[in-house]
Specification:
- The protein is α/β, with parallel strands linked by helices and 251 residues long.
- It has a single domain (3-242), classed as 3-Layer(aba) Sandwich (Rossmann fold).
- 44% of the residues lie in helices and 14% in strands.
- It has helices at residues 12-23, 51-58, 80-98, 123-131, 135-144, 152-175, 192-199, 201-209, 217-228; strands spanning 3-7, 27-32, 42-45, 67-70, 107-111, 178-184, 239-242.
- A 7-stranded parallel sheet has the order 3-2-1-4-5-6-7, with helices on both faces.
- Strand 4, helix 3 (80-98) and strand 5 form a beta-alpha-beta unit.
- Helix 2 (51-58) runs parallel beside helix 3 (80-98), helix 3 runs parallel beside helix 6 (152-175) and helix 7 crosses helix 8 (201-209).
- The longest helix is centred in the middle third of the chain and has 24 residues, at 152-175.
- The chain binds 1,4-dihydronicotinamide adenine dinucleotide.
Length: 251
Amino acid sequence: GKTIVVTGVSSGIGAEVVRIARFAGARVIGMDRNDPSLTLDGFVKADLGSAAAIDAAVAQLPERFDALCNIAGVPGTAPVKLVADINYLGLRHLTEQALPRIPRGGSIVNVASILGAEWAQRLAPHKALAAAQGFEAGAHWLRDHPVPQETCYQYFKEALIVWSATQSQTWFLEHGVRMNCVAPGPVFTPILGDFVSMLGQERVQADAHRMLRPGFADEIAPVIAWLCSDQARWISGANIPVDGGLASTYI
Ligand code: NAI
C-alpha cells in the first residue's frame, strides 16, 4: 500500500480522504492545527500558515511517502494575510519541503475551488507571484501587490491553480512527480456558511440555481484519492472540477 500525507484531516473533505484512503489500504499521515477525530497511521499537529511550523512538521514526516494531499484551507472571511499564508504560501512551502521525500511515480494533489475558475483574467500577476519562489519572497511580492479582503479567497485559489500548473511541468519532467488540482463546487462542510458571508446571499442563490445541489465531502474525496493512485499516472498539471457541472455554466 501507499503512504499518503494529507493536510486538513480534522474536518470536511480532508477527513473523508482519510476514511477512503485507509479503507483502500493506504497508510495515512495527517497534518492539521486541530486534533483529528478519525484514526490515522500518524498525525503531526501544525499551523500550516507558518513556514517555521511547516519546517518543524516536515521533519516529523516519514523519510519517504508516495503522495501529498494539500486540503487544509480557510475561507475568505479570515484576514487576507491568513488566507495568503495558509491557502497559498504555506501550501507551496510544505510542498517544496516535501518534494525530496516523494519518489518517482508520486503524486501531489492541491484542493483549489470553483472560485478559482477565473484565473485566466489575472494570469500575469499569478505568474509573477508563482515566480517569487519561497515563502518569504512570495510574502514580499504580496506586500507590494496587496489583495483586497473581498476577493482574497478567489485570488489565492486562482494563484494556486496557476502555480500548480506551471510548477508541475518541471517536477514531472525532472522528478517524475505529478501535481494536479481538484476544484470543488460548494460542499456541505463547516466552511460552507462562510461563503455566504464572502460572496453575498445573491451570488450564492444564483450559483445554487445553476446547480442541482451542493456536494458532499464523499463526492470530492474519491477524485483526490484516485489522483494519488497509479491509474492517474499520465495526469499532471490538470485542474479537475468536481462541482455538479457548475464550472460548465461559466462558459
Ligand atoms: P473544513 O473547514 O471542514 O476543513 C478545513 C481543515 O483545514 C480543518 O480541519 C482545519 O483545522 C484545517 N486548517 C485550517 N487552517 C489550518 C492551518 N493554518 N494549519 C493546519 N490546518 C488548518 O473545510 P473543507 O470544506 O473540508 O475545506 C477543505 C478545502 O476545500 C479547503 O482548501 C477549501 O478552501 C476547499 N474548498 C471547500 C469548499 C466548500 O464548499 N466546503 C468549496 C471549494 C473548495
